[in-house]
Amino acid sequence: MDGKKIDRAKMDLYAEKAKNWGKWGPNDELGTVNYITPRDIIQAAQLVKKGKVFSLAMPFGSEGPQFGDKGRINPAKTMIATGTDALCGRQDAIRIRYADDMVTMPTQSATHWDALGHIFFEKRNEKGERKVYMWNGYSAENVNCSGCEKCGIQNYKDKMIGRGILLDMARYKGVEALKPGEGITGEDLDNCAEKFKIQVKRGDFVLVRTGQLGQHLKSGVWGQFAAGDAPGLEFETITWLHDKEVAGISTDTWGVEVRPNRSDEFHQPWHWLAIPILGIAMGEMFNLDELAEDCAKDGVYEFLLVAPVIPFTNGAGSPVNPLAIK
Question: Could you give the residue ranges of the DSSP H alpha helices within the chain?
Answer without folding.
Answer: 8-18, 38-45, 83-87, 169-172, 186-195, 212-219, 237-244, 269-273, 289-298
